[in-house]
Amino acid sequence: MKLAHRTLALGCLLFLPALCASAEPKFRDLERPGARKPHEGLVIEWVSQEPKVEAVREGDRAEPPDGEAVAYTAHVRNLGSGNTEPVMVRWLVDGLAEKTGTIAGIGAGQRATVDFAWAAESGRHWIQCELVGQGEWLTFATDALTVKVGVEKKTLEKYEAEFGSFARRFQDSLAGLHASWASVREVRFAPQGIEERLRVDDFEVYERGEGDAAVPAEFRDHPRFSLYVACDQGGPVAGFFIPGYSIGHNYAGHPGHESLFSDWGENCLWHEIAHFRGVEDFYAFPTKPGDVAKAGPTGQTFPLLELRPEYADDTMNNPYKETCWSDYTAAVLQMKRGVARVGRCEDPHNTFGHMWRHVPAGIVLQVIGKDGKSIRFVDVEVYRPVRSADDGRGRVAEDAAPLFAGKVGEDGTFTLGDDPFGKRKAEADRALWLLVVLRREGVERARYLTLLDMNMAYWRGQQDKAVFQVVWE
C-alpha cells in the first residue's frame, strides 16, 4: 500500500520545468458551478450507468461498447429547508438536447432520480444532466473511469453538516483534479493533452469494522467500477491498494489542514489517484545518511542523492503544498489515458509497467568539463545498491564491489554494461538508482543515475541509446 503522506543534476541533461496546476481549460465537466459551502437547494449528487463496464484486467477500457443500450440515472437531492416546485430536467449529448422531463416537487432532505437512455457511440462523448433554472448541472465523459465512493458513517455526518452533500463535495474534488491535470496538457511528452476523467458512478455509507471489516468487501474487489475510494476521517486504511484498485482516504491532517477536503487533504487524495494512474512515489528515490557507506580514498563520504526541483515540487513527492505535476507525472498520465486498470509501474512484465520497460537499451556516460569538451581517461566505477530485507531501501555497502569498472575512452564516453538497473532480475534485486564514482588525477567525484532519468530519456526518443553528460567540476 502506498501511503499518501508520503538527483543530483547530471551535467547537461535537459529537463522541462515543473508545471503547476493553474489554468482551467474549457472542458464541459469544469463548467459546472464551483464548490459552495455549504451546498444549498437542489444538487445532482452523482449519475450512475447501467450496464456497468467491468474492469478486471490490466488495460481494460472504461467506455461502453459501440451500440450498447445505456441507461443513465441522475441522483438528485433537495438540501433546502422546504419542498421544491416541479423542476424541469434536460439531458444533452455533446451539447445537443436529447430529452427533457420534469421531477415532481421534492421534500426537504429528500432524494429523487431521473433517467436517460442512450445508444453508446465509440469515442468520447459528453453527457450533461441539467436542472433547469436551478444553476445546477453535471457533465461527464462517456469514457470516464468509474468511481464508487464509500464513506464511513461518522465521516459522512461530519461533512454533511459542513457541505450539505458529501457526494456533491467529492465531485467538486474530482473537478479540481481534472483542472489540475488539464493545466499540464501541453507537455511535450503528451502532445494530445491530459484529458483523463473520473466520474462518481455509485455511493454508499458504511460503518467501520475491525480487521478486514474496516472497509466494505467491495474495497477488495469491485470489477464493476474502475476505482473504489473509502473515505474515513482518521480511519485505519490509507493509501492506494493493489490489486484491489482502491484508495483509503483517511487524512487526519496537520494543524489547519485536518479535513479530508482541506488543501493538503485533497492533495493526498489526488496523490493516491495518480498512483491509480500508474505514477510512483518520488520520495522513494533520495538517499539517506548511511545508504551509501562506500567512501572515497581519504575516507570522505559521497553526497546524498537529492531530487531535482521539478521532482521535489511534484505532488507525488510532497502533497503538503500547492498542487504541482511535473512533466514526468504528466507523461505517465497521458500514456495510460482511458485505461481502467494499469497494474504496477514497477512490474516489467506488465504492459504499463513503465519504470522498468521504458529504459534505454544502452546507457552511456560522457564526462565533460565546464567548457563542454570531453574529458578522456577518467576512471569509472558503477555501483548498484542492494535492497535491505529490513526496510527495502537500496544501499551501497562499504565493501561493495563495483558492478562495472573501466576508463573513459578517447571520445570521453563510458558505456554501462548490460541491464545495469537489474530490470530483468527479481524485484528485490532491482535498483532505483546507480552510484557512479569518477576518478581523475587523484580527485574523486560521485554522481547518480536514476530510473526517473532513464524513463525521461526513453520518452524523448532515446530508446536504443541514451547519453548522460556528467560535468567534471
Explain briefly what this protein structure is.
The protein has 473 residues and is an alpha+beta fold. Helices cover 14% and strands 28% of the residues. The chain is elongated and about 85 Å long.
Order of helices and strands: EEEEEEEEEHHEEEEHHEHHEEEEEEEEHE
Give the domain tally. 2
Shape: elongated
Radius of gyration: 26 Å
Number of strands: 23
The CA-CA distance between the termini, in Å, is 41 Å
Helix content: 10-25%
The average pLDDT value, as a whole number, equals 88
Number of discrete helical segments: 7
Tell me the strand order in the biggest sheet. 10-9-11-13-12
- Uncertain stretches: 1-25
SSE class: alpha+beta
CATH class category name of the largest domain: Mainly Beta
- Biggest sheet character: 5 strands, mixed
Classify the beta-strand content into a percent band.
Answer: 25-35%
Indicate the CATH topology of the largest domain.
Immunoglobulin-like
* CATH homology-level superfamily of the largest domain: Immunoglobulins
* CATH architecture title of the largest domain: Sandwich
What does the model show?
The chain is α+β, with helices and mostly antiparallel strands and 473 residues long. It folds into two domains: 23-272, Immunoglobulin-like; 358-473, Immunoglobulin-like. 14% of the residues lie in helices and 28% in strands. It is built from seven helices and 23 strands. The chain has helices at residues 153-163, 166-182, 263-276, 309-312, 327-335, 354-357, 451-459, and strands spanning 19-20, 42-50, 69-78, 87-93, 96-103, 111-119, 126-131, 136-141, 145-152, 198-206, 227-231, 239-241, 246-249, 324-325, 362-368, 379-383, 386-387, 394-395, 404-407, 413-415, 433-440, 443-450, 465-471. The strands form seven sheets. A five-stranded mixed sheet has the order 10-9-11-13-12. A hairpin with a 2-residue loop joins strand 4 and strand 5 (96-103). It is elongated and about 85 Å long. The relative contact order is 0.14.
